[in-house]
Specification:
The protein is globular, with a radius of gyration of 16 Å. With about 170 residues, the protein is an alpha/beta fold. Helix 7 packs across helix 8. Strands 4-3-2-1-5-6-7 form a seven-stranded mixed β-sheet. About 30% of the residues lie in helices and about 20% in strands. Helix 4 links the parallel strand 2 and strand 3. The chain has eight helices and seven strands. The protein starts with a strand and ends with a helix.
C-alpha cells in the first residue's frame, strides 16, 4: 500500500492553471513517462521540471486543471513524481483523471495563503491534515471519499480494478 503521508516542498501557483500550462499540447505525442515528466508545468514555470523532486507538492488557487479534458496533464504530474496537488478547487474532469491515475488531489481553499514556495509540508491523506515540517498544524483539506482513497491506495483505478478482479477469480 502506498504511503498515506506525503512530504515535500511547496510550489505555489495561482488561479486557472490550465492543462496546457501543466503539460503543453505540443508535447502530446510523447509517450515515455520520463520524456513526459521533462515538460511538466512548462507552460506555467519553464524551470519547474528541472527543480521539482519526487514527493514535492503543487499548491494552487482555484480551478486547477481547467481547459482541455485530455489526460496528459495528470499523467505529466504523476510521471514527474509529484506527491500531491492541493488547490482551492479543481476542474472536474482533471480531478477525476488525476485520482484515477493515482495522483493525490486535495481541496483546501486556504492553503495557498498559508504557505510559501519552498516550505516543506506533510499531508495525511487519511485525515487531510497538513502540517509544516516542524509538525505545526497548517490546515485541513477536504476529506477524500473512501472510494477515492481506495483508488489512491492502489496506485490508480486500473490497478485497483485488477486487484478486485483477481480477488473474484482465485487462482486465475
Amino acid at each position: 500500500m502506498p504511503e498515506t503521508i506525503i512530504r515535500g516542498r511547496v510550489f505555489l501557483f495561482g488561479k486557472n492553471v490550465d492543462t496546457d500550462q501543466i503539460y503543453p499540447g505540443r508535447f502530446v505525442e510523447l509517450t515515455d513517462p520520463e520524456d513526459v515528466a521533462k515538460h511538466v508545468m512548462e507552460g506555467a514555470d519553464p524551470d519547474f521540471a528541472k527543480t521539482c523532486r519526487p514527493g514535492d507538492i503543487v499548491v494552487a488557487q482555484s480551478n486547477f486543471g481547467c481547459g482541455s479534458s485530455r489526460e496528459h496533464a495528470a499523467v505529466a504530474l504523476k510521471a514527474a513524481g509529484l506527491g500531491a496537488v492541493v488547490a482551492s478547487s479543481f476542474a472536474r474532469i482533471f480531478y477525476r483523471n488525476g485520482i484515477n491515475l493515482g495522483l493525490p488531489l486535495l481541496v483546501c481553499p486556504t492553503l495557498h495563503t498559508l504557505v510559501k514556495n519552498g516550505d516543506v509540508i506533510s499531508i495525511n491523506l487519511e485525515t487531510g491534515d497538513i502540517r509544516r515540517d516542524s509538525g505545526a498544524f497548517v490546515a485541513r483539506a477536504e476529506k477524500v471519499t473512501e472510494y477515492m482513497m481506495d483508488i489512491l491506495r492502489n496506485g490508480g483505478i486500473k490497478p485497483m480494478l485488477r486487484e478486485k478482479l483477481a480477488e473474484l477469480q482465485p487462482g486465475a
